[in-house]
Amino acid sequence: MAKYLHIFMVSLKLGLMSFGGPTAHLGYFYDEYVKKRKWLDEKAYSDLVALCQFLPGPASSQVGIGIGTVRGGMMGGIISFIGFTFPSILILMLFSLLFTNSEADFSWLQGLKLVAVAIVAQAILGMGKKLTNSKSTITLAIFVLFMSLLIDHIFIQVISLVITGIYGLLFLKPNSIQAASRREKLFHLPKRLGVISITLFITLLIMLPIASSLTNNIWIKMFDSFYRSGSLVFGGGHVVLPLLEKEFVPQALISPDHFIAGYAAAQAVPGPLFTFASYIGTSITGISGGLLATVAIFLPAFLLLFGILPFWDTIKSNVYADGFLKGISAGVVGILIAAFYNPIWTSTINTELDFVLATALFILLMFFKCPSWAIVLIGLLLGIVFY
């Protein structure tokens, strides 16, 4: 019980301070779980990030679930998710219930966006040293960086990672299977869980639209819409927003004004952007609708992750899979750099003052070793004072 409480408190702290979107979340996770607490090493973390980049759904939330699973099994993964997402869910549901004015002044949030710049920059440097330490891996990272920034397509990151993975499979694999299988087993999950999870994921994806079309029940229709949105989205929370808009605004289940106000609120709170579903569900049918929406949109992430993780250690021990993951991990560094530039840098560093304050936060974090929570508080204070 003490272990689960510890997992919950650590993830809750991250849920309260993780501003800046999924890339920033990976930075916070890296700082807290890898550098500070050493719940898993650099290689295991990069492999988990690479896996979650491939899966549809909220990548940062899935990474958090995976880390919780490393620490405390399946229940640890669930508790880690609850801690990380609870603040965002609660705030957005309350905002939906109390929504009166979408013109509130959120200019002080600029300080928290500056924190995201510092956190992600630190994560890129830390992961880059470990994952791009050769000419080949540096080239792969640059390739993914260029592809991500120059080609505007929903699947470009996944396509780029496949290419880097194939390169790694051919040219970066270790010399022997023994060299690939020395790592300690991370996920102690039964393979039966994996089979059941994947089967349930596919069954719901097929059956829910059929059930929705055969009934006018609003609860089934909502569950179907949120579940499909969480199942078929690559690229994180920002990509799911247009899907949710098409599911609910044309049907007059939520007004355009309320949708936009909720989107602004989701950008302002810490934690995963997928909790925007909590706001929409609450706007449609109250608290029960918000809870249903939250479960439905995150359920695919759980089913896919728990479907893969029981087999993950076996997959990684294969010499070819090891090379494949090395290529993908290098590509993930490129994705982080691309996201650092756009949207984090481009939407945050607009003036000389922004640059100076972000640099100061980075120096405090990187060289003075200030903890992440202190950097968040300093960034919040800077936002209040200067913006």
TrEMBL record:
<dbReference type="Pfam" id="PF02417">
    <property type="entry name" value="Chromate_transp"/>
</dbReference>
<keyword id="KW-0812">Transmembrane</keyword>
<feature type="transmembrane region" description="Helical">
    <location>
        <begin position="111"/>
        <end position="128"/>
    </location>
</feature>
<feature type="transmembrane region" description="Helical">
    <location>
        <begin position="7"/>
        <end position="30"/>
    </location>
</feature>
<feature type="transmembrane region" description="Helical">
    <location>
        <begin position="324"/>
        <end position="344"/>
    </location>
</feature>
<feature type="transmembrane region" description="Helical">
    <location>
        <begin position="193"/>
        <end position="214"/>
    </location>
</feature>
<keyword id="KW-1133">Transmembrane helix</keyword>
<feature type="transmembrane region" description="Helical">
    <location>
        <begin position="78"/>
        <end position="99"/>
    </location>
</feature>
<feature type="transmembrane region" description="Helical">
    <location>
        <begin position="287"/>
        <end position="312"/>
    </location>
</feature>
<dbReference type="InterPro" id="IPR014047">
    <property type="entry name" value="Chr_Tranpt_l_chain"/>
</dbReference>
<keyword id="KW-0472">Membrane</keyword>
<protein>
    <submittedName>
        <fullName>Chromate efflux transporter</fullName>
    </submittedName>
</protein>
<keyword id="KW-1003">Cell membrane</keyword>
<dbReference type="InterPro" id="IPR003370">
    <property type="entry name" value="Chromate_transpt"/>
</dbReference>
<feature type="transmembrane region" description="Helical">
    <location>
        <begin position="140"/>
        <end position="172"/>
    </location>
</feature>
<feature type="transmembrane region" description="Helical">
    <location>
        <begin position="356"/>
        <end position="386"/>
    </location>
</feature>
<feature type="transmembrane region" description="Helical">
    <location>
        <begin position="260"/>
        <end position="281"/>
    </location>
</feature>
<comment type="similarity">
    <text>Belongs to the chromate ion transporter (CHR) (TC 2.A.51) family.</text>
</comment>
